[in-house]
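Q: what does this look like with 6-O-phosphono-alpha-D-fructofuranose bound?
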Amino acid sequence: MSSSRVSLTQYLVEQQRLHGHIPSQLRLLIEVVARACKRIAISVNKGALGDVLGTAGSENVQGEVQKKLDIIANEVLIEANEWGGHLAAMASEEMEGIYVVPNRFPQGEYLLMFDPLDGSSNIDVNVSIGTIFSVLKKPEGSQGVSEDDFHQPGTAQVAAGYCVYGPQTTLVLTVGDGVAMFTLDREQGSWVLTADDVRVPEDTKEFAINMSNMRHWDEPVKRYIDECLAGEEGPRGKNFNMRWIASMVADVHRILTRGGIFMYPWDKREPNKAGKLRLMYEANPMAFLIEQAGGAATNGRERIMGLTPTKLHERVAVVLGSKNEVERVTRYHLEAKS
Ligand code: P6P
């Protein structure tokens, strides 16, 4: 690839030439999602100058109060993707059921899932938020499309990524050949390759967890965090730092950039041992990116991408990031069971 600026399109064309993982319909899908993220960034960046802050006076299927920007982002992604002929259906955190591409448009072979604006509690306080997306192929031979077609393990993803709306607007993407980052050049309105072959350091001194939930955690998580807090006098023999942005996209971006461990474990308020985060459009795409960058992603015990969902909005516990730390948490869970 030339040392000069590489655009998203050039990167995708060259990746297809090198690895053959990006058929033209998938390239179109990624470019359409990237364009939608540029449109969302414009609304996000307006803040109080546009009628985009505050709540929309409605709740989503999760029972969460919807922000105006949640609805704007959801509509932008639906409208950008429904006519292209690359998709059979979409699913969103903001919609109860799947959105089947209307008959007036050609049907494609891909399924797109997204959290249109993750971290919305941060919108009104000007903290980074993001769009998360995951792409599956519609199962061969399935007539029409139903929610069951989405119930595939994370290992079946053909692409995943996020766009973080922060000091920079950055698109982070994998199609199974490593992780690349593209920064939005606002003057030209184009995505420029700014990092290729991203790697997560296997060790870290930085953990991310919402400490206010400590009293609800299971023993292995308490043990792990207590040891981090004990610092160099404790069993880990080193001091740790803590970060919690409460925007998964921003916390994961930090971990992809400099390492770390992110934990949203199940807690005793969750009767069915699930967690807060959603498997299909938060945990799975982030797990794909982290694994492609040499990290690990589990629910505390088992690989997230190995789980087969049975419901569209299924929740899961999440432990992801620097491989050696994630594996330590798994070991503590196994020791607790024995
Ligand atoms: P808490 C945002 O609402 C989100 O889904 C993730 O982006 C984030 O990591 C988590 O929830 C924050 O949860 O309980 O700390 O507000």
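The radius of gyration is 20 Å. Residues 136 and 297 are 19 Å apart (CA to CA).
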